[in-house]
Amino acid sequence: MSDDSGPRWTDREIVERYFPATDARLVPKTLRYRLTEGRGGAVLIHDRTGDAPVGVLSPVPTAGNPTGELACDLCRRTGTRRFLAPFRLEVPGTRGRRVRYLTACRDRRACEARRTDDDALATLLERDEPSS
Length: 132
Hints:
The chain has helices spanning 11-18, 108-114, 119-125, and strands spanning 33-37, 43-47, 53-59, 70-71, 78-79, 84-90, 99-105. By secondary structure, it is α+β, with helices and mostly antiparallel strands. The strands form 2 sheets. Strands 1-2-3-6-7 form a 5-stranded antiparallel β-sheet, with helices on one face. A two-stranded antiparallel ribbon has the order 4-5. Strand 6 (84-90) and strand 7 form a beta hairpin. The longest helix is centred in the N-terminal third of the chain and has 8 residues, at 11-18.
């Protein structure tokens, strides 16, 4: 039997305590966004504090060599197009005139489990500043 009254550790606390020399990029951070499946292969980006999506990643049809290696911009896993796919997001504030692209795992749950930061999502969701 397990004793549930023992201390609970986050991934971040374990890495910082037992592996203090770990590069900061590899230390898990508190995630602001969560990703869920949408219709037609879309991926919905939600802020952890709300249910309404703050962005939608739309799948992009793939072309080219199906055995070419890609890297997931979210969890940094590498693999072929069988496991990874390109997505696009309309840049906030541009009314669809500009889009940003990223590559992400097709397996949403596994990708979310591996993801250690929100850096790629934060970059995608940045609003365009009007040019002067």
